[in-house]
Write a structure and sequence with these properties.
The protein is mostly helical. The chain contains 3 helices and no strands. The protein has one domain. The N and C termini lie far apart (28 Å). The relative contact order is 0.15.
């Protein structure tokens, strides 16, 4: 198990950066021109980022990004 000690400002920054990445992935997953193999890799990345996001964001923010 690893630990991370961050202050409030750093937590907000991490939350913001991960939210932007999740938003971008959701947008790209809706693009019909992207190949299914690439989309699967994007879904895997989304799951990993969402797990990290759950650790730094509050519950209300997490509800918006729960994978379907």
């Amino acid at each position: 198990m690893l630990g991370l000690l961050i202050n409030d400002m750093e937590q907000k920054e991490l939350t913001y950066v991960i939210q932007r990445e999740l938003d971008e992935l959701l947008f790209d997953l809706g693009d019909q021109r992207i190949d299914s193999i690439v989309k699967q890799a994007m879904r895997d990345r989304y799951r990993i980022l969402f797990q990290l996001f759950r650790r730094v964001a509050n519950e209300q923010d997490c509800l918006k990004y729960i994978p379907k």
